[in-house]
Amino acid sequence: MKISLSNKIVFIVLFALLFSHTEMTAQCAMCRAVLESEANQDTAKGINDGILYLMVFPYILIGGVLFFIYRFYKTR
């Protein structure tokens, strides 16, 4: 099986996106203001982690749909 250059580029880009890590904060301005005013920052970290957790699922769903569309057209 010969892998074309475009497939290699797609693989490299996907690999870089999946395994690159940056710290993100996903709170709105009002949530951040309320949570930063508290003395205990554990609540703020928990809220931020929950927002990031919920943000992942739409990307997984869209990726799955695109994968099945790609596979459908590839087999035709």
What's a quick, concise take on this entry?
By secondary structure, the protein is mainly α.
Provide a descriptive summary of the structure in words:
- The structure is a single chain.
- This protein is an all-alpha fold.
- The protein has a domain of 51 residues.
- Helices cover 75% and strands 0% of the residues.
- It contains three helices and no strands.
- The longest helix has 34 residues.
- It is elongated.
- The model has no long low-confidence stretch (mean pLDDT 80).
Percent helix, as a range, is over 70%
Number of helices: 3
| Alpha-carbon distance between the two ends | 18 Å
Secondary-structure-based class equals mainly alpha
Structural shape: elongated
Mean pLDDT: 80
| Largest sheet, strands/sense/barrel | none
What string gives the helices and strands in order? HHH
Number of strands: 0
Poorly predicted spans: none
Radius of gyration: 19 Å
Proportion of strand residues: under 5%
